[in-house]
């Protein structure tokens, strides 16, 4: 896939931003020498970008995360290294922002310098299987709230509609009309449809811009 | 657009409560259960319900008391330290025989502890929710689907027996996402002739109260309540048996620990070890008879817990200390791994140390 220097991932709480962000970091590492991924989630206490820390280390991807992420304290802290994303213009950056408008407020702090550089993509991650974003209307409502808080407008959509590991090819195919409707109503292009790797081969000839996701480890 | 939705355990509880007819939620935020309040805050105003963030957990549980007195379905939720604060209210609810649903998405303790998952409020939930002689129905979900199912069941049982039902979940259950189906056939609430709904000058006024001026009257109310508890112990026990038919080693585990244990049991069975599991779904009433029956065949009981062996005591009581007992646990926000459980099974089998 083609990326700008900074890729911002926002969306409704639980839409799968972190999984998409982690996989976009893997994807960019194949094309770029310096890749950083930043965990700006100030909402979610468990299941964080930082959970993949070992993989990032092995692959030489820089992880920017609060030292409190995944710890036993509940401090909505931001890592001070986030400013390096704006300052070091020779590195690619993926920014995983927390859910909803409350998570997106964290972005407002660095939004002016991202906008000034103007080499970014602001991606709206959507999932029609989440209870509060099941149709285009409610999803667009969430989108407007996030834009208002983040102080950056979205540039494209990532259709990450899924039911976790139980997702079937039919589920993904059904979600295309939903993503299309949001695209038409907002004027935003669909950058990709992301599916977990087991479904990729089955769907790659049917869906344009299909993006394969390796899932983060989880407890069964 | 789809039959199934992808939900966090906390969201599943909130939506299931709404489906069950709950229109009053009072809470105070605490990790790892805050999504329940956040979900209620978004949904209740859209359906004519009441979401109120109280000034404290103590205020919230007393608001529950108020709504429960009117006979309506009402819920509060918190995590371990917050449940301790609600303890007084839980006792008052029991003393006034009021139905309510209370959610505890447990985190590590004691004290402020931490935000990672735990099951160390087992004693508190099953034996000492507050002062005085009383019980709560304690339901322990082991999947996001069960978080929803037991929420509906919890309301039904609470109304049926005029008691508090408590969902005893843990942080992992609250935070993990799984597909769920939320189709329920909600039965109408039972008649509540005791509720304070206004007399319309047509009946004697009802009084909801836990104060008794005469000790013999208070004794009588306690004895009546314990008759009800006895009936519940005989009729409302829920548990799941897994590979217990020929089990010589019996694992006891609930919630997230039961899921880890299942993986270990599959591994152990591949190695030819006869091991199974009893997963209590009701922690009170405890599945005493199931464990008693298991003790006929099993020589060793392994309690897999995220606590220092709180449930192990009930396993020993149920089996009258007839077998060998082992505890396989992690605490403080840690979760036992399938490998750790497998090692315990092998040790019980007299194999690898």
Q: What is the alpha-carbon Rg of chain A in Å?
A: 16 Å
Classify the helix fraction of chain A into a percent range. 25-40%
Could you tell me the strand content of chain A as a percent range? Answer: 15-25%
Silhouette of chain A: globular
**Shape estimate of chain B:** globular
- How does the helix and strand content of chain B classify structurally? alpha/beta
Corresponding CATH superfamily of the largest domain in chain B? Thiamin diphosphate (ThDP)-binding fold, Pyr/PP domains
CATH class value of the largest domain in chain B: Alpha Beta
Spatial order of the strands forming the largest sheet of chain A:
3-2-4-1-5-6-7-8
Largest sheet of chain A: 8 strands, parallel
Compute the number of helices of chain A. Answer: 8
CATH architecture level-2 label of the largest domain in chain B: 3-Layer(aba) Sandwich
Q: Largest interface, by Cβ-Cβ below 8 angstroms: which chains and how many residues each?
A: A-B, 28 and 34 residues
Arithmetic mean pLDDT of chain A: 92
Q: What is the average of the pLDDT values of chain B?
A: 96
Count of DSSP strands of chain B: 14
| Largest sheet descriptor of chain B | 7 strands, mixed
Euclidean distance between termini CA atoms of chain A: 32 Å
Q: Which blocks of ≥5 consecutive residues of chain A have pLDDT under 50? A: none
How are strands sequenced across the largest beta sheet of chain B? 3-2-4-5-7-6-12
Encode the helix/strand succession of chain A as letters.
EHEHEHEHHEHEHEHE
What does this structure look like?
The complex is a heterodimer of chains A (220) and B (353). Chain A has 220 residues and is α/β, with parallel strands linked by helices. Chain A contains eight helices and eight strands. In chain A, strands 3-2-4-1-5-6-7-8 form an eight-stranded parallel beta sheet, sandwiched between helices. Chain B is of the alpha/beta class. In chain B, 40% of the residues lie in helices and 19% in strands. Chain B has helices spanning 9-19, 34-43, 57-69, 80-95, 122-126, 144-161, 171-175, 215-235, 255-270, 288-294, 310-318, 338-348; strands spanning 5-8, 24-27, 50-53, 74-78, 100-106, 137-139, 164-170, 177-180, 239-242, 249-252, 275-280, 282-284, 300-305, 324-329. In chain B, 53% of the residues are buried. Classes of the chains: A alpha/beta (220), B alpha/beta (353). The A-B interface holds A 13-14, 44-47, 71-74, 127-132, 134-135, 162-164, 166, 171, 174, 178, 218-220 and B 1-2, 4-8, 11, 15, 31-32, 35, 39, 42, 108, 113-116, 171-172, 175-179, 256, 259-260, 262-263, 332-333, 335.
């Amino acid at each position: 896939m083609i990326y700008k220097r900074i890729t911002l991932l926002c969306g409704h709480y639980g839409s799968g931003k972190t999984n998409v962000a982690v996989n976009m970091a893997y994807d960019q590492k194949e094309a770029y020498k310096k890749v950083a991924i930043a965990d700006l989630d100030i909402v979610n206490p468990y299941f964080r970008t930082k959970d993949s820390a070992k993989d990032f280390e092995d692959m030489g991807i820089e992880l920017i995360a609060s030292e409190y992420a995944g710890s036993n304290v509940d401090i909505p802290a931001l890592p001070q290294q986030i400013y390096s994303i704006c300052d070091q213009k020779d590195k690619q950056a993926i920014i995983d922002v927390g859910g909803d408008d409350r998570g997106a407020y964290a972005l407002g702090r660095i939004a002016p310098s991202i906008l000034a550089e103007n080499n970014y993509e602001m991606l709206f991650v959507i999932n029609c299987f989440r209870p509060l974003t099941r149709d285009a209307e409610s999803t667009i409502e969430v989108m407007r709230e996030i834009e208002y808080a983040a102080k950056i407008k979205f540039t494209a959509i990532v259709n990450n509609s899924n039911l976790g590991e139980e997702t079937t090819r039919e589920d993904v195919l059904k979600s295309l009309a939903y993503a299309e409707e949001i695209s038409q109503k907002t004027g935003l292009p669909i950058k990709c449809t992301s599916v977990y790797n087991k479904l990729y081969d089955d769907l790659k000839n049917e869906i344009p811009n299909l993006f394969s996701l390796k899932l983060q480890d989880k407890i069964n | 657009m789809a039959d199934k939705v992808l939900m966090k355990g906390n969201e599943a509880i909130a939506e299931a409560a709404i489906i069950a007819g709950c229109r009053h939620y009072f809470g105070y935020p605490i990790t790892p259960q805050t999504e329940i309040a956040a979900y209620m805050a978004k949904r209740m105003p859209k359906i004519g319900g009441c979401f109120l963030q109280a000034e404290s957990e103590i205020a919230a549980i007393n608001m529950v008391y108020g709504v429960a007195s009117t006979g309506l379905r009402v819920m509060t939720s918190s995590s371990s330290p917050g449940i301790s604060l609600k303890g007084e209210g839980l006792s008052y609810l029991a003393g006034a025989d009021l139905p309510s649903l209370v959610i505890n998405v447990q985190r590590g303790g004691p004290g402020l502890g931490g935000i990672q998952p735990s099951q160390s409020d087992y004693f508190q939930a099953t034996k000492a929710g507050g002062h005085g002689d009383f019980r709560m129905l304690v339901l322990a979900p082991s999947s996001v689907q069960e978080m929803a199912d037991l929420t509906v069941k919890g309301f039904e049982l609470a109304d049926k027996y005029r008691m508090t039902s408590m969902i005893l979940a843990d942080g992992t259950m609250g935070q993990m996402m799984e597909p769920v189906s939320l189709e329920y056939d909600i039965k109408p609430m039972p008649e509540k002739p005791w509720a304070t709904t206004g007399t319309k000058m047509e009946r004697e006024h009802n009084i909801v109260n836990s104060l008794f001026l005469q000790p013999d009257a208070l004794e009588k109310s306690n004895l009546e309540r314990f008759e009800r508890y006895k009936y519940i112990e005989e009729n409302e026990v829920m548990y799941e048996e897994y590979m217990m038919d020929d089990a010589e080693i019996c694992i006891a585990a609930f919630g997230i620990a039961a899921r880890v244990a299942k993986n270990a049991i599959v591994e152990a069975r591949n190695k030819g070890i006869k091991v199974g599991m009893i997963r209590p779904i009701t922690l009170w009433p405890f599945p005493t008879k199931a464990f008693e029956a298991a003790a006929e065949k099993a020589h060793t009981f392994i309690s897999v817990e995220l606590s220092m062996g709180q449930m192990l005591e009930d396993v020993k009581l149920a089996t009258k200390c007839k077998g060998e007992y082992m505890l396989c646990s992690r605490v403080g926000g840690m979760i036992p791994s399938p490998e750790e459980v497998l090692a315990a099974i092998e040790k019980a089998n007299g194999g690898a140390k």
